[in-house]
Amino acid sequence: MNPSERLRVAVTGATGNVGTSLVRALEREPRIASVLGLARRRPGLILPKTEWAEVDLSMERDGPRLTQYVEDADAVVHLAWAFGPTHDPVATWRTNVLGSLRLFEAVAHARVPVLVHASSVGAYSPGPKTGAGVSESWPTHGWPGAAYTREKAYLERVLDTFERDHPQTRVVRMRPGFLFKAESASEQRRIFAGRFFPGALLRPELLPLVPEFAGLRFQVLHTDDAADAYRRALLRDVRGAFNLAADPVIDGQVLAGLFDSRAVKVPSRAVRGALAAAWRLRMAPASPGLFDALLHLPLMSTERARRELEWEPSTSSLEALDAFLRGVRTGAGDATAPLAGRRIG
Over 90: is that where the pLDDT of 168 sits? Predict the structure, then answer.
């Protein structure tokens, strides 16, 4: 890419957790001329470089409008994703997979030079929980028991074909760990714990014990650091996948330290059984399949992102989790429909 060229970037899912961070990061970047934020509902955010447009990727009738929105873009960043309803995998497939296919077709039709896609650690096949972490060459067949991981893995195969058939488009796949920031706390509480879960319960003085069980080891990253990696991928002539995560790895002992409490070993079967019962009774939106996926996700090496993007997280995983927990307790949010703040309890 010509270093003097100023890019027009279209971003799907621009009002969500990553989208709001990315749009703000692009606002500060001199090499970005304009941003078109695409979302189902127009937000209240007013940003100098950014215009907003409404589109629903799950709706076939919105396909022509989607093509119109991306045809003048120098790059498209695809972040749109529906985590639920977890009881209706057909609904999430319609948005996440069929909606992505419509976007990829629009990108191909318009011959957009750059496509940056939000994949995930969830796309990876089960792997090691210890050691230096897997590279981007680790198989991406996902965990079969959860819609989220199946859909992320399926889109990896779709992009394999897209890259073969459309070599004129530079394709980048970002595979971050769990992404948190204070402003996303209310949305993520609703997604994973339910809209009526009292955020005030997540206080150190109320959690003297934290469960620790086999397989509870995962990676976390502050959303703003993920957005910085996306920005770098847009501006550099790179292709392929990039793992994104911050240190340290999160486990039961680390969580106990965060809450100033004590880790207590419990069988993972007991935790899963309680979650499955709550999910079947529709008391918890997170499915037991997602819990199984968490236990099998590999740890990732971020060496490629650090080397080729010259990317380094500015916030530790503990700081990211702490910001998220403070956001849950205070009902933090942002001026978009998905991130609307609300405090319960």
Answer: yes
Digit-coded pLDDT (tens) for 119-132: 999 999 999 999 99
Of 135, 218, 188, 229, whose CA–CA distance to 323 is shortest? 188
**Which is more confidently placed, 197 or 101?**
101
Q: Identify the pLDDT of residue 246.
A: 98
For residue 177, the tally of other CB atoms under 10 A from its CB is 25
Tokens representing 158 are: 């779709």
Q: How far apart are the C-alpha atoms of 100 and 16, rounded to whole Å?
A: 16
Confidence tier at 265 by pLDDT (50, 70, 90): very high
Strands (E), 213-251: 217-222, 240-244, 246-251
Buried b vs exposed e over 324-345: b needs ≥16 C-beta within 10 Å? bbebbbebbbbebebbebebbe
- 8-18 in b/e form (b: 16+ CB < 10 A) is ebbbbbbbbbb
Q: Give the residue with greater pLDDT, 259 vs 226.
A: 226
Going through the chain in order, the beta strands assigned E by DSSP cover: 7-12, 32-39, 50-54, 75-78, 114-118, 170-176, 178-180, 209-212, 217-222, 240-244, 246-251, 262-265
Over residues 236-261, the pLDDT tens digits come to: 999 999 999 999 999 999 999 988 88
Q: CA-to-CA distance for 95 and 81, rounded, in angstroms?
A: 7
Calpha distance 75→35 (Å, rounded): 10
Tell me the backbone φ, ψ of residue 108, rounded to 5 degrees: -65, -45
Structure tokens at 322: 């702490």
For 206, phi then psi, to 5°, come to -100, -5
In degrees, rounded to 5, the angle at the alpha carbon of residue 54 between the alpha carbons of residues 47 and 100 is 110
